[in-house]
Write a structure and sequence with these properties.
Keywords: Isomerase, Membrane, Rotamase, Signal, Transmembrane, Transmembrane helix. It comes from Candidatus Woesebacteria bacterium GW2011_GWB1_39_12. Its EC number is 5.2.1.8. It catalyses: [protein]-peptidylproline (omega=180) = [protein]-peptidylproline (omega=0). It is a single chain. With about 220 residues, this protein is mainly alpha-helical. The chain folds into 3 domains: about 45 residues; about 55 residues, no CATH class; about 70 residues, no CATH class. Helix content is about 75%, strand content about 5%. Strands 1-2 form a two-stranded antiparallel sheet. The longest helix is centred in the first third of the chain and has 47 residues. It is elongated and about 90 Å long.
Amino acid sequence: MAAKSKVKNENVSKINKSTLNKYFKSFKSRRYLILVIFLILVGIALYLGKSLFIAAIVGGRPITRLELVKELEKQSGKETLDNLVTKNLINQKAQKEGVTISNEDIQKEIENISKMVESQGSTLDAALSIQGQTRADLEENIRVQKTVEKMLQDEVKISDADLLKYFEDNKSLYGNEAKFEDLKEDIRGQLKQEKLSAAFQEWMTKLKSESKIIYFVNF
């Protein structure tokens, strides 16, 4: 009886070991399969998103996006950051004062620019491409420009007396045959830009001094 019990226990033990071995082998196989699938997915992700990490490969050596960003920061980091700070301050001030620019005004300005470029034998898209910009960039710049003009409009009022004085003071530039009425609007636009530029510099300097700006990078 004892011998039969011993044989039975040994058989049970062998079955358990066999079952466990099969389980562990199956587990290892599944784990290996999961690892392979994971590596394949990572490889696909890296390939499809390689431009997120690598900017170029030269002679087998990759140039990383980080290297590119560092070089760009060296060349124009301060200027670019200042522009971003300026745009943010303008947008925040405009939002606070309820100043908005309609999409119709922006499209009208784009049409004017497009006509001017076409009159010079080019196209708007070609001109933007040369400058490394898109239509979205142009729209943003126009919105910012018109927002500034709207907020500073009281600072850039120009009278006819101002226009006439400028014409008389600079008559030699236009020639003896030049007529004031023919040049009046051109002079107005020029004086407006000069006054706007001066008013903007003063306004932005004051706005920066009154705003809480924390810089985390130095150039």
